[in-house]
Amino acid sequence: xxxxxxxxxxFASALFYVGRLIYRSFTAKKGCGSNCKCGVDFSNxxxx
Length: 48
What we know:
By secondary structure, the protein is mainly alpha-helical. About 50% of the residues lie in helices and about 0% in strands.
Protein backbone atom coordinates (compact mmCIF):
# COMPACT_ATOMS: atom_id res chain seq x y z
CA UNK A 1 0.00 0.00 0.00
CA UNK A 2 2.77 2.45 0.89
CA UNK A 3 4.62 1.65 -2.33
CA UNK A 4 1.52 2.48 -4.39
CA UNK A 5 1.19 5.83 -2.66
CA UNK A 6 4.85 6.65 -3.30
CA UNK A 7 4.52 5.69 -6.98
CA UNK A 8 1.35 7.79 -7.30
CA UNK A 9 3.06 10.80 -5.73
CA UNK A 10 6.07 10.44 -8.03
CA PHE A 11 3.82 10.12 -11.07
CA ALA A 12 1.76 13.16 -10.04
CA SER A 13 4.89 15.25 -9.47
CA ALA A 14 6.27 14.20 -12.87
CA LEU A 15 3.00 15.20 -14.54
CA PHE A 16 3.08 18.54 -12.73
CA TYR A 17 6.68 19.14 -13.84
CA VAL A 18 5.98 18.33 -17.49
CA GLY A 19 2.79 20.41 -17.45
CA ARG A 20 4.70 23.34 -16.01
CA LEU A 21 7.37 23.04 -18.71
CA ILE A 22 4.75 23.03 -21.45
CA TYR A 23 2.85 25.95 -19.90
CA ARG A 24 6.00 28.05 -19.55
CA SER A 25 7.03 27.36 -23.14
CA PHE A 26 3.76 28.77 -24.47
CA THR A 27 3.47 31.84 -22.24
CA ALA A 28 4.93 35.14 -23.40
CA LYS A 29 8.26 36.20 -22.03
CA LYS A 30 8.92 39.72 -20.78
CA GLY A 31 12.18 40.06 -22.66
CA CYS A 32 14.67 37.93 -24.48
CA GLY A 33 17.72 39.01 -22.49
CA SER A 34 19.96 39.35 -25.52
CA ASN A 35 21.02 42.51 -27.30
CA CYS A 36 18.43 42.31 -30.10
CA LYS A 37 16.43 45.34 -28.83
CA CYS A 38 13.14 43.53 -29.38
CA GLY A 39 11.55 45.25 -26.36
CA VAL A 40 12.69 48.81 -27.20
CA ASP A 41 10.16 51.42 -28.33
CA PHE A 42 11.61 53.38 -31.27
CA SER A 43 8.51 55.56 -31.84
CA ASN A 44 10.06 58.68 -30.21
CA UNK A 45 13.31 58.53 -32.18
CA UNK A 46 13.56 60.69 -35.30
CA UNK A 47 15.25 59.05 -38.28
CA UNK A 48 18.27 60.92 -39.60
